[in-house]
Predict the 3D structure of the following.
Amino acid sequence: MARGSTSVEVRRDGVAVITVSNPPVNALSLDVIASLQRDYGEALRRSDVKAIVLTGTYLHMSFLSRILC
């Protein structure tokens, strides 16, 4: 079984983009939550990060409604 994960990229303009990858719908799993906590924490600790964007691979982001509600 594939494990969900996240990755973080900090652009030159100070925007950290955290991408969730857990096909097919980017559902929250324990792996995704742990990875998201790690990458979010890294972005918060960096002095060059001015904003954080959370996005997902594929067409769906089912977890986002859980975070925002």
